[in-house]
């Protein structure tokens, strides 16, 4: 049994002992006794007694004060006042203050009994209080429950709401039941027919169970309400009382609607996307969109029975299995990567895959987005192939930016230019320029490139070593997808060697052509030149056999001789030409007196000049004119000039003069042959020095000739280091002047 805690204020120790003795008769107790008010108050607070016994006659205080302290500190603790003798009036006053009882010492034997009674009373009181308290609390709980119940509870009697909880008011937006009753309830129904339905159901004695109603708040906001109700009917079968509860599911409905909306959004998104979308777990595919099904060629049903790795290319199965398992175990593996998948027909594709974790039908799963990048991969491979080709190409390849700063060069470029890649990247290609490429080339190049047109051409460039070379370049702009120029690319080839070979070849070709031309000319011109004198020889020699007159015979022999001479000269010319062509015709240098040589030649032609009635005069400026030269060259040249002047002059004179001259600091002896003949047109003055060219070719062969004489003459003068000058006017005459160097070194 619990000990009762007594606090006693009594200064008389005998009385304390007396009380102790009295209490011990009945209780298990503890007793604290004090002697003054101050300690009493302290003990009230610290000891907190279950029972107080206080002697009224305690010095410096009294029963009233002591009971007041009790009231203040431990109000419900029983208080018994102790007096010496029976003093009812005094006790009454103290009891008025709140004391429970009083005992005089003379009756102290009643103490235990009184105490017990008081304790029992107090126990009863306490129990009552507790029960009351519990009742209050449970009522409050019930009230709270009802008031805050998510369902709105109500009771309607004779069409009037007699009770409803706060939820009902809140749902419809009313502040009180009165407000609700004053409002026309019909207006709470969106569809008045629904109200009728509910009422007729109740009238027929049925319960309304989970009926979904479209209703409105006081202010007209739409509501979705679930109604449950039953009614009590009166003797006439009219509704007397309705009891029911409402559930506001407006928000639930809204959420449901937005859920439906977001699901349809997801579906539309997934189905209209050009990405494959799949949801899968470790057991199988759970979802796939049509793009993905098309990619792999399986139907939705088939996929629902397949592991995701069943469509992965064997090379990547292990990787994808590992990552999938890690993801579904809540890990965070690499989520974006590329691998190959294999379709139903066995065809493989490269895909770009992005995975994420989701909850699907309440379970953790993975979602994957898939792009078919097969074409991209192929293009990449193609590109790789091409870059290898470019890198390995023997052609120099260079890519620059828009400002012509080098961004890329291939191996061949590095090797050909001699620069290192570090020196090249970021530099301007003008570092290759030798300075000898004409400016116009660059102008044209940039004009083309800036207008988007490729350019082809040659540069004279320079390697790092300083060696010059001919660069054949193909330069073209590179456009982006919008047609904007973003780079310039050049492909170059060192064509120095080719150019040299080409030059050589063209020289050879010219030579061959020349030889061909010579051959044709011989056949056309020469056949005539050979046949005419031969005909003469044969004709006259036949005639001779029939002649008897010696003079006639002599004349004929003279013709034969002339024809023979002409044939001989032609043959000599041919031989000379071929020797000159072969290039093994070196001058034999000796001392010559041009005056003597000229006189000898003039003598040879005197007769033929006379025959044509031409005056042939000679004017040497000195008696001797010595040169170190080649006799044949000089003689043949002069003979030819004289022969021509007689041939192409029909009247007038032929004047030969010898003089000396200096040209470009070089000393020459000059012989000039001037005639009053047919002259040579300006355009033919150059041509006649070429092989087989005759001024008269164009207008019929009035004059005999091979067309070789002047060309041989020019070649002879070349070999001597001299030249021929010509002054002529058609119809007036010509003057040919040969310049013979005073000294010609013989070639060894
Ligand atoms: P050809 O054997 O025809 O004389 P040449 O080479 O000596 O060949 O001369 C070439 C051509 O130059 C001649 O056919 C002739 O038309 C012209 N020619 C040369 N000398 C004279 C000249 N003194 N007066 C006019 N024409 C000349």
How would you explain this protein's 3D organization?
The chain has five domains: 4-119, Response regulator (Rossmann fold, 3-Layer(aba) Sandwich); 135-254, PAS domain (Beta-Lactamase); 273-372, PAS domain (Beta-Lactamase); 390-581, Beta-Lactamase; 585-741, Histidine kinase-like ATPase, C-terminal domain (Heat Shock Protein 90, 2-Layer Sandwich), CATH 3.30.565. It has 22 helices and 27 strands. With 748 residues, it is an alpha+beta fold. A hairpin with a 5-residue loop joins strand 18 (455-462) and strand 19 (468-479). The chain starts with a strand and ends in a 7-residue tail after the last strand. The strands form six sheets. The protein has a five-stranded parallel beta sheet with strand order 2-1-3-4-5, with helices on both faces.
Entry summary:
With 748 residues, this protein is of the alpha+beta class. Helix content is 44%, strand content 27%.
Keywords:
748 residues, alpha+beta, Rossmann fold, Beta-Lactamase, 5 domains, five-stranded parallel beta sheet, 27 strands
Shape: rod-shaped
- As a whole number of angstroms, the C-alpha radius of gyration is 71 Å
What is the CATH architecture descriptor of the largest domain?
2-Layer Sandwich
- Work out the number of β strands: 27
Query: In CATH terms, what is the fold-level topology of the largest domain?
Result: Beta-Lactamase
Q: Quick one: CATH superfamily of the largest domain?
A: PAS domain
| Distance between the first and last residues' Cα | 159 Å
Tally of individual domains: 5
Small molecules bound in the structure, each named once:
adenosine-5'-diphosphate
Strand content bin: 25-35%
The main sheet orders its strands as 2-1-3-4-5
Briefly note the structural class of the backbone.
Answer: alpha+beta
**Name of the CATH first level of the largest domain:** Alpha Beta
